Amino acid sequence: MLKIQTAQKLFPILALAGCLVAVAPLVTRADSLPGFTLFSGVDPSNQLSYRLDSGYRNTTDRYSLKLPGSKINRLGAAQIQITYPDYYKGKFDDKAIEVFAGGKSIPVESVEWNRENQTIQIDLAKRLKTKGEIEVVLNNVQNPDGGGMYYFTCQVKSSAEFPVARYVGTWILSIE
Length: 176
Hints:
Layout: H1 4-28, E1 50-52, E2 60-67, H2 69-72, E3 77-83, E4 97-101, E5 104-106, E6 108-114, E7 119-128, E8 134-142, E9 148-157, E10 166-175
Antiparallel strand pairs: 1-2, 2-8, 3-7, 3-9, 4-5, 4-8, 6-7, 9-10
């Protein structure tokens, strides 16, 4: 049988270990979907992957939205346009948006967040041609007060001379 002194020494250690086990899932949580989505209305080949640093409502977050290079095709991309639903009540910091290709930062000429039309338009300094993954990072996003699923769609324009936007895909963001 354990002595009382031994039990008194072990109790704080066991209590601390129990707290660490309970907190670990909260610390490591980060969405990186699409994963497996049923009944989304979006063809699986058009579902784009993403990662949210937090994913919780009413918090400051960072969205890493990924575009496969195969979707950009040989025409490249001079402008990336992201459209989100009107019921999404989050806020974006248009001065903290970055674009990466192959892990390297791509110069951004301008970013326009149009709140009335629910769009973010990113004009790149030069047309981007890549077969690798492109990542659009939205920093300092204020997540909406209400959780839910939000469909962010992406269109790309190749150049000003050819102003027709091509649909690239949809990110199905889940905020708890």
